[in-house]
Amino acid sequence: MTKTFGATSTTDEVLEGVSLTGKRVLVTGVSAGLGVETARALVAHGAEVVGAARDLNKAKAATAGVRAAAANGRGFTLVELDLASLDSVRVCADALVDDGKPFDLVVANAGVMACPFGKTADGFETQFGTNHLGHFVLVNRIAPLMKPGSRLVNLSSAGHRYSDVDLDDPNFERTPYDPWVAYGRSKTANILFAVEFDRRHRGERIRAAAVHPGGIQTELSRHLTPEAAQALIDRINAATRAAGEPPFRFKTIPQGAATAVWAGVVAAADEVGGRYCEDCHVAEIEPNPAKRAGVKPYALNPETAKALWAKSEEMAGERF
User: What's the pTM?
Assistant: First the structure.
């Protein structure tokens, strides 16, 4: 009988009785929060995990528990990756390809949220450039290492409801910058990337899904003051109350990392491939913009996904 998991399930509950011995996983953003917990849970069940982070010293300190969970301290290594620099992305990807060891799972976890307007090293708006374009180039460059049966899991967010992608003005050159609109665009892009990657690779038995981890108090909210964070929660609750949804509740980090682990190694590939998941299940399509749960139809639009892929190639100067 298949176990059913939900919003309060943790990584260890999702992986109970699961052996990942012989599996190799790449997790980005292992210097804090969900990335660290994802890596810990996977190595604790036997996987070999490569953790990518911009600040290796910070990541080394943050992942002491991951190394402790790995058998004999082996099975976990760190690589340097700055998603806001395509030079760094390419150096990281090339080193992984040169190493030649295949991956069973790639978890594109790293990201930024609601930051002030800024640009990446390549001149892209920070959130779109970091959350989407950096991962787009990294994943496509290492795609030859993904073996049949492997999966890509992109961390998205219920914040995708704030905006569809804008392929005419991705860098806010003509649009007034709003940090939440920018975040929404980047999180919608994470879903659309999974949709198109899944379409392109499912014939090779390589699948992709996007997940919403839930609201978790991690370093992702570093750009929000406590007052701004509370104001955001109040706005969410007012909207969801009007839409008939339950009030917003924070998840613990192990609960937040559970959906990525579930989609990556527990759920059936055909169940999650090309889909958006939340609370350890595939989300329903929900057109009502006031509702927090579910996935907005535009985020699964296959034509937009193809157009985003082409625009991303144009922006990165690289065809895949």
Answer: 0.94
Exactly one of 9, 31, 85, 156 is catalytic; which is it?
156
* Tally of CA atoms within 13 A in the half-sphere of 128 that contains its CB: 30
| 298 catalytic residue (yes or no) | no
Distances (CA, A) of 297 to 4, 39, 184, 192, 234: 25, 31, 14, 11, 25
Instruction: Identify the sign of the CA torsion 167, 27, 265, 251.
Output: negative
Does 119 qualify as catalytic in the annotation?
Answer: no
- Residue among 183, 186, 251, 276 flagged as catalytic: 183
| CA dist., res. 259 & res. 5, Å (int) | 9
Domains of the chain: 11-222+251-315 (3.40.50.720)
Dihedral (Cα; 127, 132, 138, 139), 10-degree rounding: 150
Concerning whether 156 is annotated as a catalytic residue, the answer is yes
Catalytic residue among 187, 251, 291, 296: 187
Structural contact between residues 123 and 84, judged by C-beta atoms closer than 8 angstroms: no
Going by C-alpha positions, the residue among 313, 124, 74, 277 that lies closest to residue 200 is: 313
CB atoms within 10 A of CB 308: 23
- Per residue in 83-134, pLDDT (tens digit) is 999 999 999 999 999 999 999 999 999 999 999 999 999 999 999 999 999 9
- pLDDT, tens digit, 9 for 90 and up, residues 23-53: 999 999 999 999 999 999 999 999 999 999 9
